[in-house]
């Protein structure tokens, strides 16, 4: 329907045009990715495809020493958690981050992230944790550890299992999703912690969408927001840096690139936004 950027680099540089809205849903995105503008555009485009009016606000962890973006530029374009924590938030999205090989304790902003996620459990209707953030969330909420993979999981993977009669999989015949990671969470699908449900999984990618109803948290191991050329660009980047990298699976970089995951990503996020509309915040009932 329409998405407005309340802040961010795209708005500041007039690369995203806002429209008039009446009563938009409020989504906060904690952007941990190194290319801030690219990530902003990907999420704004995905949310803009939904049947909802959405106002997006970008935040960053103030305790992080960024190597890719100047601190003064971040402060001028993004908000901090302290500036938004008193707001009523409909949805929170925590992006991935290229730090998955580090132990959680080695992340300079880990305490701030833990604080934000704990706050979200009582102040945000629904939260999505993507890629590395999903691994950190599963560790924080269920003490599920992560391990390094022998080879990077890189490509497009389709779910062979979808949870039936679930609001998050409504109208989804399957879910296809880009994956780009060197690690995985040690999720035992046959012996799940109480309150953790597998929404989608595949033999190669494992359980790549999980949900906690108690914490109203989604843990997504991939990147449904990626645009058509993102994996290709990552592949070329790693080649140029002389890293050991295989071509992304199920994604022909020698032919015309086709976005095979966009439709299911849009439907899944539509289901998520519909779920938000039905939620009642804990502090609304006190």
From TrEMBL:
The keyword Amino-acid biosynthesis applies. Keywords: Acyltransferase, Amino-acid biosynthesis, Cytoplasm, Methionine biosynthesis, Transferase. It catalyses: L-homoserine + acetyl-CoA = O-acetyl-L-homoserine + CoA. GO terms for cellular component: cytoplasm. Pfam families: HTS. Substrate binds at residues 152, 180, 237. The active site is at residues 131, 223, 225. The record marks 180 as: Important for substrate specificity. GO terms for biological process: methionine biosynthetic process. The keyword Acyltransferase applies. It is found in: Cytoplasm. The record marks 100 as: Important for acyl-CoA specificity. Its main location: cytoplasm. Pathway: Amino-acid biosynthesis; L-methionine biosynthesis via de novo pathway; O-acetyl-L-homoserine from L-homoserine: step 1/1. Its EC number is 2.3.1.31. Transfers an acetyl group from acetyl-CoA to L-homoserine, forming acetyl-L-homoserine. PANTHER family: HOMOSERINE O-SUCCINYLTRANSFERASE. This is Homoserine O-acetyltransferase. It comes from Holzapfeliella floricola DSM 23037 = JCM 16512.
